[in-house]
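CHAIN AND CONFORMATION:

***
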Amino acid sequence: SNDLGHINNLGRAHTNALKKTWRSLIEAISKETSLSGKYIADSVYVDELFHAMGYDNSDVLILRWLRSRKWDVNASVHQMIETMKWRRDWGVQELVAKGERAISQDEISTNKTYFMGHDKMGRPVCCIHPKEHIKGQFPHEYSEKLTVFCVET
């Protein structure tokens, strides 16, 4: 998007917030892990962060968090750290590595989620239809795994 605050349309304040967020994120990871300097690259937080980015420009992901927190750098960094913890604790990387084998085939066949077409950047579009969910049809964990898998792949 070319809207103000997106990667191709950053004002000076947005650029400064982006730079400050990167510095603050590195400091927060260092504090969380007791690692410093080049050693934070080996932390689970950095690993999760780069897996979350996928093929996107790393600044695009950081800008999403900044926009969602109305350009509050501290709130954005806090949310990023919490997200990385959730990804680690939930086992997102392991789920994606196992692929569809980790998902109930019966749950997949409900067509609650599917991929159709591509966005303007050529990325697949994941469609998730919560209205197709029937409470109690499958264990809650099955639905969670399916949703996380589709969003992450």
